[in-house]
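Try this one yourself first.
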């Protein structure tokens, strides 16, 4: 009888050890799955053809990549008509393009304003090489801004596992006359973005110049 009781105790102890090992294994598996999902969520999506349309539908851009990643490719801008008309061609690709048709220019003529955003920025520091956004009109570059230009400091970023950003929100084209205390732009409109540290930057789409910077609350990191 004592021997039988000893065996029963040993069996119970072995069962308890097995249960604890299973629980640990389950916890470890869940942790690994969470880590894998986090890494996969940070993977850079490959380039695909992209179409952007003016808010009133009067013109649009079709951007086609030449490579799976990066900015190599071609973007064609069309005016909408019974038969759409090719207006401009740019030698770059972007998965995030904004347009404003009939933008008043400094010479009092109108043009299509095009804003190109750069691809995912790799690394953990803003720098002069990574494109944040660029302004175009009439087939030409007006102004280019690097991630460091927008951030103002290499560390003023929001980062993930392998990428970072300096812009938290894109507001797009807004009317300057509706914004109190803002210097009027040549086009009487502005292109607005909000940085990760809460600054609201307003750009003149006719020149690409920054016409105002308004402090605000930083976004969550």
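Now uncover the answer:
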């Amino acid at each position: 009888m004592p021997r039988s009781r000893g065996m029963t105790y040993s069996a119970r102890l072995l069962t308890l050890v097995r249960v604890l090992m299973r629980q640990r294994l389950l916890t470890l598996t869940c942790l690994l799955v969470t880590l894998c999902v986090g890494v996969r969520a940070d993977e850079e999506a490959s380039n695909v053809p992209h179409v952007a349309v003016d808010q009133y539908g009067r013109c649009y851009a079709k951007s086609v990549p030449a490579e799976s990643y990066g900015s190599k490719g071609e973007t064609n801008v069309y005016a909408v008509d019974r038969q759409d008309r090719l207006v401009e061609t740019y030698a770059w690709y972007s998965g995030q393009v904004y347009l404003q048709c009939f933008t008043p220019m400094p010479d009092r003529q109108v043009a299509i304003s095009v804003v190109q955003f750069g691809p995912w920025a790799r690394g953990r520091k803003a720098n002069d090489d990574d494109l944040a956004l660029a302004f175009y009109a009439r087939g030409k570059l007006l102004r280019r801004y690097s991630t460091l230009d927008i951030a103002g400091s290499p560390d003023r970023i929001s980062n993930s596992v392998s990428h970072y950003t300096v812009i938290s929100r894109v507001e797009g084209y807004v009317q300057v006359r509706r914004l109190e205390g803002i210097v009027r732009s040549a086009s009487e409109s502005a292109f607005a973005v909000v940085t990760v540290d809460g600054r609201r930057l307003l750009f003149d789409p006719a020149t690409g110049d920054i016409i105002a910077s308004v402090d605000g609350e930083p976004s969550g990191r």
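Discussion: The longest helix spans residues 2-41. The two ends are 65 Å apart (CA to CA).
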